[in-house]
Amino acid sequence: SSWGISRPYADAYQWLNAHVEAEAVVGSMSEETNRDVLLLTRHTLFLPSGGTTLASNAELLSRLYALAALWEFSPARLHDFVREKTYYLFQSWYRPRTIDSYFHTTELWPVPENAWEKHADAFTAFMAHGVYTLYPLDYLLVGPREEAIAATPAEFAAFPLVYNADGVRIYRFNYGNGI
Description:
Radius of gyration: 16 Å
Largest sheet: 5 strands, mixed
Structural class: alpha/beta
Number of strands: 5
Low-confidence stretches: none
Mean pLDDT: 81
Helix content: 40-55%
Distance between the termini: 34 Å
């Protein structure tokens, strides 16, 4: 629901708190799930919002590329995702610097195409070299929100499934699992 946490996700967050070490890093492609993990669990987000982290844009992009690679995004799909989620990822970085720009909606602040071309080239290079391993990622959370963004890749079946209830799954993951 728009004013609460759906029961399947709430149960998954409760399971994380009860069964997963506090230092664990959880990854999701969903802005809503990431918000919930930040607020309702004791775990660290793999891809935090640009407004809730001190991480640089370069680090956020590296983390985004890693998740996009796991979810088998093409550069075109990543482009669409970034256009939809520019505000979540970068907050006001691409906001026009005019005095009244905060009075306009965030949809008016997409990543400029010339900047996107650099990101697309970087993602393509990233894909050619395999999954980036600089940042730890311990668990992948996949449910209806994530499935609405992209289908769960078949390769996820190779990861240990540690939670599976009401359409929400949590996979134990580390970059040594073969991806």
